[in-house]
Amino acid sequence: EALGPQEYTGIKLKVLEWSGAAKEALANIPALEGKSVYMVAATLRPETMYGQTNCFVGPSITYGLFASNNENEVYLCTMRAARNLAFQGLSLVERNVTKYAEIAGRALIGTKIHAPLSKYPEVYVLPMETVLATKGTGVVTSVPSDSPDDFATLQDLIKKPAYYNIQPEWANFEPIPIINTPTYGNLTAPTICKMKKINSQKDRVQLAEAKELAYKEGFYGGTMVIGDYAGLPVQEAKPKIKDALINSGEAFVYNE
Ligand code: A2H
Asked: From the CB of 217, is ligand 1 less than 6 Å away?
């Protein structure tokens, strides 16, 4: 864990269609009418956003819908993150949190979203048991090509959709090659998970090791194979992709 402040990129995942449960929970809230809702995901790896296949929420986490600094946009994240956003001047009334509604993560599952830069124009919200309410925004965007946690969790969901209460088609998105690495090829996380025989999100010890390997290899040895910066080393592409997302209004800097 970093001791100093951690700088994340807050990725804005636009809600295209609520799940049935979310539709019900959020009906009749006049403040939401005519506004776009964005689930805000905190990531350390903005250069991987081309490979988003879904987004994860903690089923037992309570989320809120909050006023943002744009009157047409509402942000969905934890209350804790909303306070941080407000403090950083990203809320409607500076340093003041305006909450329009609350919703359980469980009710968000199956919501259809647009994830910026992803090769898949529409992806779904899925459950991840290990999302921490105490870190980031409580929303984790999923890049199974480069994140062992995301890959292992998706494998669980694909194997047991009924157990996890999802429709199989919500998880039916193949990992996309976005970064080539000398040691693990262009699907780093699936390759490492296979090598370490990681079968589930519950393999915590091996996953912690896999995460470390994938992160180091991707950052120091990786080359982009997709997007405007294809051919560039990840270290060079990362700040450029981050800036492009921020300039297009699809992301912002989020510190905590
Ligand atoms: B990363 P750190 Cl491709 N609970 O984004 C659990 N995990 C969370 C979280 C939460 N509340 N909030 C953010 N995260 C994840 C991309 C990614 C990430 C890739 C590879 C590695 C990786 C796509 N998922 O993280 O504890 C988010 O996943 C491994 C370090 O602050 C975020 O970046 O160091 C990362 O963990 C933040 O972790």
From this structure: no
Per-residue pLDDT of the chain in tens (256 residues, 90 and over written 9): 556 789 999 999 999 999 999 999 999 999 999 999 999 999 999 999 999 999 999 999 999 999 998 999 999 999 999 999 988 876 655 567 899 999 999 999 999 999 999 999 999 999 999 999 999 999 999 999 999 999 999 999 999 999 999 999 999 999 999 999 999 999 999 999 999 999 899 999 999 999 999 999 999 999 999 999 999 999 999 999 999 999 999 999 999 9
Mutating to test ligand 1, I would choose from 1, 140, 143, 178 the residue with most ligand atoms within 8 A of its C-beta, which is: 140
Q: Is the pTM of this model over 0.90?
A: yes
For the domain bounded by 7-255, which CATH number is listed?
3.90.740.10
Cβ of 211 less than 6 Å from ligand 1? yes
Q: Is the CB of 45 under 6 A from ligand 1?
A: yes
Dihedral-angle region of residue 130 (phi above 0 means left; psi in -120 to 50 means alpha; beta otherwise): alpha
What token pair was written down for 246?
A: 């921020």
Q: Does the beta carbon of 117 sit less than 6 angstroms from any atom of ligand 1?
A: no
ipTM of the complex: 0.98
Helices (H), 79-202: 79-87, 105-108, 148-159, 188-195
> Residue 66: enclosing H or E segment and its boundaries?
strand 62-67
Would you kindly state where each structural domain of the chain is located, as residue ranges? 7-255
